[in-house]
Design a protein that fits this description.
The protein has 406 residues and is of the alpha+beta class. Helices cover 50% and strands 17% of the residues. It has 2 domains: 153 residues, no CATH class; 224 residues, PPM-type phosphatase domain (Phosphatase 2c, domain 1, 4-Layer Sandwich). Strand 7 and strand 8 form a beta hairpin.
C-alpha cells in the first residue's frame, strides 16, 4: 500500500495551510498577553505562532509518512485505536518541530528567541502546549473517523444480516408444505411460526406406497440460524429414509442413526411421525416429542405417547409404536413445545391444560384449518404481544374415511 505524506486532495490544502493558520490565532493572543505587549504587537506574535504551527505540521506529517507506519503493522494502526508507540512518535515529532521553529526564528527574524534561560523555558513550555493541542486534534479526529467507520460498518453488517435472514426465512418457508393439504381420506392444515426470523421447527407430509400418507413434525435443539440449518438437515435426512415400506418406529431409528453419525454438537431433535392408511389405521411414534392429541368425533380425547428418545443423541436408541383405528371425523393434532411454552407478559406458560381446553371446545371449528387457527390465536392472545420464547408449529389432520368403501 502506498503511503502519503499528506492527506489526499482536496483535504491537503486544509491540512497544510488553513489549519496551521487557525491554530496560530489563540497562541498569538496568549503570547501577547503573556509578554504584556499591546495589541499593536499582536501581528508580530501571530507571525511567530504561525511559523511554529507550520513547522510542527510538517514534522507531524513527516512522522506520519516515515516513522509511525514502521512502529506497528499498518493494518493495525489504521483499524485499531492509537498505539502507545505511535502516540509517543507524534509527541516527539511535535516537540522537535517546535524546537526547530525556535532555532530557525532565533537565527532569522527573531534573534532574541534564545536570549536567556527564561526564553528557553518558555519555548519548551509553549512547545509542550503546541504538542498537546496538535495531538488532541489529531487523535480526536482519528477517533471520530474510527467511530463513524465502526458505526457505518455495523449498520452495513446489520443490514446485510437482516437481508440474509429474510432470504433464509423465505427459503425455509418454501421448504415447508402448503398450509392446507387434502388427500385420499384425509384433510390437513399446518403452520410453523419461528420465534425469530428463522426457526428450528419443521413439518412434512409423505406419500407412501399403498396409498398411505405420513405426517411428521420436528423440533431441533436451539433457536435462530443454527437451529434452522439443523432443521433443514434433519428434514432432508428424514425425507431420504422415509420411502421404505415399514412403520414409523423403523423410520425414526434410521433417522436417529444417520443424525448420530454426523457428529454435530447440539444435533438433537424431537420428532413425532405417524402413518395413516386409507382404512383408518394410524400408526404413531414419538421421538421425545410432545404427545399428539387424538380428538374423537364422539368428543373423547386421547394422547399418543409411545415412542422413544429424541433423535441424534444416542446411537442405540430404540423406538416403539402404537396403532389406533380412526373413524371418519376423528382429528389428530401434533404440536411443538413452543405452543405449551408460550409465555404471558407475567411469565406464566400456556401449558397443556389451556391447549386441551382449546381443542375440546367444539366451537373452535371443526375443519382442520379452523382448529389450527384457534390454537395459534389462543397462544397469541395469551402472550398479549410478548415475544415468543420458542418456535410454534401445529399440524392438524382430519380422517375423512376410506374413499374406496364410500
Amino acid at each position: 500500500m502506498r503511503l502519503r505524506l499528506l492527506p489526499s486532495r482536496p483535504r491537503h490544502f486544509w491540512w497544510l495551510v488553513v489549519r496551521p493558520l487557525l491554530f496560530a490565532i489563540p497562541f498569538a493572543v496568549f503570547f501577547c498577553f503573556l509578554q504584556g505587549s499591546s495589541f499593536d504587537k499582536l501581528g508580530d506574535y501571530y507571525i511567530g505562532a504561525a511559523f511554529f504551527s507550520f513547522t510542527i505540521t510538517l514534522a507531524i506529517a513527516a512522522n506520519r509518512r516515515w516513522v509511525a507506519p514502521r512502529l506497528i503493522p499498518s493494518e493495525q494502526s489504521r483499524a485499531g485505536p492509537p498505539q502507545s508507540l505511535q502516540i509517543a512518535s507524534y509527541a516527539v515529532a511535535a516537540m522537535l518541530g517546535s524546537v526547530a521553529a525556535g532555532v530557525i526564528l532565533h537565527y532569522t527574524i527573531a534573534p532574541s528567541t534564545f536570549g536567556t534561560g527564561r526564553d528557553i523555558m518558555l519555548l519548551l513550555m509553549f512547545s509542550a502546549m503546541f504538542t498537546v493541542l496538535f495531538l488532541g486534534v489529531i487523535y480526536a479526529r482519528r477517533s471520530q473517523r474510527l467511530l463513524i467507520q465502526r458505526i457505518r460498518e455495523e449498520a452495513e453488517n446489520r443490514t446485510r444480516e437482516e437481508q440474509e435472514l429474510r432470504v433464509a426465512a423465505e427459503i425455509q418457508q418454501a421448504l415447508l408444505p402448503p398450509r392446507i393439504r387434502a388427500g385420499k381420506g384425509y384433510a390437513a392444515a399446518g403452520a410453523s411460526i419461528p420465534c425469530r426470523t428463522i426457526g428450528g421447527d419443521f413439518l412434512e407430509y409423505f406419500d407412501l406406497p399403498g396409498e398411505r400418507v405420513g405426517f411428521a413434525l420436528g423440533d431441533v435443539a436451539g433457536k435462530g440460524p443454527p437451529a434452522a440449518i439443523l432443521a433443514a438437515m434433519v428434514q432432508g435426512i428424514f425425507t431420504t429414509h422415509v420411502d421404505k415400506d415399514d412403520g414409523p418406529a423403523a423410520t425414526l431409528s434410521r433417522v436417529n442413526q444417520a443424525l448420530y453419525k454426523r457428529g454435530i454438537e447440539t444435533r438433537f431433535a424431537t420428532i413425532a411421525y405417524m402413518v395413516l392408511t386409507p382404512d383408518g389405521r394410524l400408526v404413531s411414534c414419538s421421538a421425545g416429542h410432545n404427545p399428539a392429541y387424538l380428538l374423537g368425533r364422539d368428543g373423547a380425547v386421547r394422547r399418543l405417547e409411545k415412542g422413544g428418545l429424541l433423535v441424534g443423541a444416542f446411537g442405540d436408541a430404540t423406538y416403539e409404536e402404537e396403532a389406533v383405528t380412526l373413524h371418519p371425523g376423528d382429528t389428530l393434532v401434533l404440536f411443538s413445545d413452543g405452543v405449551t411454552d408460550a409465555e404471558s407478559p407475567s411469565g406464566e406458560q400456556f401449558g397443556e391444560e389451556r391447549l386441551y381446553s382449546v381443542l375440546a371446545d367444539r366451537k373452535a371449528g371443526r375443519a382442520p384449518e379452523e382448529i389450527l387457527e384457534s390454537v395459534l390465536h389462543a397462544t397469541r392472545l395469551f402472550a398479549a404481544g410478548h415475544p415468543p420464547a420458542d418456535d410454534i408449529t401445529v399440524l392438524v389432520v382430519r380422517y375423512l374415511g376410506n374413499p374406496s368403501t364410500s
